[in-house]
Amino acid sequence: GPCYCDQACARTLDCCHDYAQACPAIPCVVSQWSAWSGCAEPCKTTHRVRTRHIIQEPRNGGAACPALEERAGCVEYWTRQGTECQQSLIPALITTGGFGKERKKRAAADGSQRAGYCVQFQLVSLAPGCRHRQPWLSGLREGLGVCVQCQPPALRRGQRCRGDGAGSLQNQLLHWQAVGNHRCKGTWRRIRQLDTCSCPSVHSFLFI
């Protein structure tokens, strides 16, 4: 009689004599990945997606189908209307707060006394590379509060420092990058801006 392709026969030991030839294992076959979609939302750290579909379902104990969807993080810096996103999404470039002393000396010599401001952030994540090299990066950890000064010349046209998070949503994750150590970067949340400030000597940084 006909040979039924029922995998249970391998366990019950009653497969037909030509089972392997009549019922070969057929693995799942999937298509190539589609092109990546755009970011799910503009002006946010979000994700993009690519998909593939099943061409051949597995049969007779063949290899199962792999994942049909894949996601990857992304940031879209332009709105759907074609306008540039707010500066809050641009990674803030920071260096040691001690660098500001030389800036103030040069500003005084040039007769420039434009007032700056400070922004308080709470660190959410940081890369392992922050634990090496520059001493001014030591002691950083998740959940730590830090103070970042905005001074000329980073204070562009007397307005804002690049990447200070102004206009960001409450609890929005913002990106930062340490200057001089490309391996040290992470995310933080903006807590508040202080128009008149003096950042403490510990965990104090400067916008570049």
UniProtKB/TrEMBL annotation:
InterPro entries xref list: SBSPO, SBSPON_C, Somatomedin_B_dom, TSP1_rpt, TSP1_rpt_sf, TSP1_spondin_dom
Pfam families assigned: SBSPON_C, TSP1_spondin
Domain SMB: 1-28
UniProt keyword list: Disulfide bond, Glycoprotein, Signal
Protein name stated in the entry: SBSPO protein
